[in-house]
Amino acid sequence: MEIVLKYFPDISVSQRRQLEALDELYQEWNTKINVISRKDIDNLYEHHVLHSLAIAKMFNFQKSTTVLDFGTGGGFPGIPLAIMFPDVKFKLIDGTGKKIKVVKEVINAIGLHNCVAEQRRGENERGIFDFIVCRAVMPFDKLVAIVRKNVNRKGNNSIPNGIICLKGGNIDDELGKFRKNVEITEISDVFQEDWFTHKYVIYLPL
User: Fold this and answer.
1) How many other C-beta atoms are found inside a 10 Å radius of the C-beta of residue 21?
2) Mind listing the pLDDT tens digit for each residue in 154-200?
């Protein structure tokens, strides 16, 4: 938790309590349903929570913005972002029912009222949102093909609505035809820990 406070020292008491509660909740649920690698669960705050919050360091969503977390898995990046932006509405979807069960339980346990979770494949999601966020769920071109239909063309943020994706490794080949249209930010420019080397926030305005 200290690593989150290092970069977000001004969070409210409520936000801090919600973030602090994640450790025990995920530790407990991970013994029943493997939503986070058991080798990685002890790195929850650095590798999952703070990684998700890289988006919050680079984007300041305005009140009433709507965000879809596509392929949320165990709730990342959606749950940390929903904690950080209490006036923004989040919907978290994943095709795996067991994972969504955990996500729903975590949301309820910490009283996250601006966030809902549903078992649903992205192809079947018909809602319209200002931004789509995700964490390395599939190749970028396939992601864009699926979620383009869900992006609201009218927005109220300082940047155009679009897709915000957390990716790592060699991304040049994957971005392909979108390379000239995306904005890429190295997370290591924001977070000093070695783990964030060669990890990126990719933003595609639509």
Assistant:
1) 16
2) 998 999 999 999 999 889 888 988 999 999 999 999 999 999 999 99
